[in-house]
Specification:
- The structure holds two protein chains of two kinds.
- Chain A has helices spanning 17-25, 44-55; strands at residues 6-9, 34-39, 58-65, 72-78.
- By secondary structure, chain A is an alpha+beta fold.
- Chain A has a single domain (6-78), classed as Translation Initiation Factor IF3.
- A four-stranded mixed β-sheet of chain A has the order 1-2-4-3, with helices on one face.
- Chain A is globular and about 35 Å long.
- Chain B has one domain: Hypothetical Protein Ychn, Chain: A, CATH 3.40.1260.10.
- Chain B has helices spanning 8-18, 32-47, 76-84, 102-113, 119-128, 137-142, 160-168, and strands spanning 22-27, 51-56, 132-136, 156-158, 172-175.
- Chain B has a five-stranded parallel β-sheet, sandwiched between helices.
- In chain B, β1, α2 and β2 form a beta-alpha-beta unit.
- Chain B is globular and about 70 Å long.
- The chains are: A alpha+beta, B alpha/beta.
- Chains A and B meet through α1 and α2 of A and α2 of B.
C-alpha cells in the first residue's frame, strides 16, 4: 500500500483523458503531496512514467488490482515542482 | 569595478533544460477521425508540458469554423464550396465508412458510450491547455472562408513562413 494525499478517479476514461486529468489535478496539490490516480486503461502503465519524465514530477509507484470488469491500475505521483 | 564571470556552458545547458519541447501539427484533413487524432496528440503533448502549435489548412479549416458557417465570397465557385462544406467541429465526416452520414452517427455513439470526448470537447480542452491555433490564410481565401466565420480563440492567421519557423524547432512535426 502506497500512501497518498488525494485520489483522482479516471475509471472508464481512455487516453488521453487520464493524463490530462492528472495534469490538471496535480496543480491543486502542494509540493511533496502524493496523488493516487485510478485508471482501467492499461496504457497508463507506460504513459504515467513518461508523463512524469517530461513534467518533472516523481513517479512513486504503480499497483495493479484485480477488479470487475477490468483490472484497475493505481499510479502514485508526487508533486515535485 | 568587479565583474562576475558566468560560465557560458552552464547557462546554455540550463536554458536547454527549461526550454519545453515544441510540437507542430498541420491538420489538412476535415475528417472526424483525423481531427480526433490531431487533438489527442495536441492535448496529450500539452499535458506533458510541451509547447504545441496547430495549423489548420484546407479541410482542416472546417474544424475551426462556426456551426453551419458557409462562404461569404462573392464568386460562384467559392460560394459553392461554402454550401458543400458546412463548417463546424460537430459536423465532420468519417474518412471511411461514412455511408452518407451514418458512419459519423455510429462513431459518435461509440465514443459517447466509451466516454471518449467529442471533437468540440477535444478542441476546448486543447484551448484550455494553451495549444496555439493558427489558420492558413491561403486556404481561407481559396475556400472563401472569412475570418468572422471562424470560432473564438484562433490565435493567428498566417502563412507558410510562420509554420516553418515553428516546425524548424519542433521536436515533433506531424501532417494529418
Amino acid at each position: 500500500m502506497i500512501e497518498s494525499d488525494t485520489t483522482l478517479d479516471t475509471l472508464g476514461y481512455f487516453c488521453p483523458m487520464p493524463i490530462i486529468m492528472t495534469s490538471k489535478k496535480i496543480k491543486q496539490l502542494s509540493m511533496g503531496q502524493v496523488l493516487e490516480v485510478l485508471s482501467d486503461d492499461e496504457g497508463i502503465k507506460k504513459d504515467m512514467p513518461a508523463w512524469c519524465q517530461t513534467t518533472g514530477h516523481e513517479m512513486v509507484g504503480l499497483e495493479e488490482e484485480e477488479a470487475d470488469p477490468k483490472m484497475v491500475y493505481k499510479a502514485y505521483v508526487r508533486k515535485s515542482k | 569595478m568587479s565583474m562576475t564571470q558566468v560560465e557560458p556552458a552552464t547557462t546554455l545547458a540550463q536554458l536547454q533544460e527549461t526550454k519545453p519541447d515544441k510540437v507542430t501539427i498541420v491538420l489538412l484533413s476535415g475528417d472526424m477521425d483525423k481531427a480526433m487524432a490531431a487533438f489527442i496528440i495536441a492535448t496529450g503533448a500539452a499535458a506533458m508540458g510541451m509547447q504545441v502549435t496547430m495549423f489548420f489548412t484546407f479541410w482542416g479549416l472546417n474544424v475551426i469554423r462556426k456551426e453551419g458557417a458557409t462562404s461569404s465570397a462573392k464568386d460562384f465557385l467559392r460560394k459553392a464550396f461554402g454550401w458543400l462544406n458546412k463548417g463546424g467541429a460537430k459536423n465532420l465526416p468519417l474518412s471511411r465508412f461514412h455511408f452518407g452520414g451514418l458512419g459519423s452517427i455510429m462513431m459518435k455513439k461509440v465514443m459517447k458510450d466509451n466516454r471518449m470526448p467529442s471533437v468540440p470537447e477535444l478542441l476546448e480542452t486543447a484551448q484550455d491547455l494553451g495549444v496555439k491555433m493558427i489558420a492558413c490564410t491561403t486556404t481561407l481565401g481559396l475556400l472563401g472562408i472569412s475570418k468572422d466565420t471562424l470560432i473564438e480563440g484562433i490565435d493567428e492567421l498566417a502563412g507558410v513562413s510562420t509554420y516553418l519557423v515553428e516546425a524548424k524547432d519542433g521536436a515533433v512535426n506531424l501532417f494529418i
